[in-house]
Write a structure and sequence with these properties.
By secondary structure, the protein is mostly helical. The protein contains four helices and no strands.
Amino acid sequence: MNSEDWAKIKARSSYELVSRKSFIKPKDGLDYNIQAFYTLKPVPPTNTNLDKMYQKTPGLYQVADKGMEYFNQVLENKKTPKEALGEWAAKGNEMLAKLKKDPKATFQ
């Protein structure tokens, strides 16, 4: 999978990025910075305590998702940041209170 021959074959594809930079050539006169794809550092592992907390209380994901809904409403200019934060604080605290009573609770 990482051989030179394989890289030559896969380098013809415009949908895949091969592991050998020497085979990556801009196609159709395009000009882009291929180095940008190779200089990134891997994301550090998540906090194991946080992972355990999410496993023990799966509904916490839904609290975060609700926050993302409000964030998207701000991006779409449907709410101001202040309105969205206020609503998420109210709804999020309600959800957290339910999870405190029942850690296995889920939300619709």
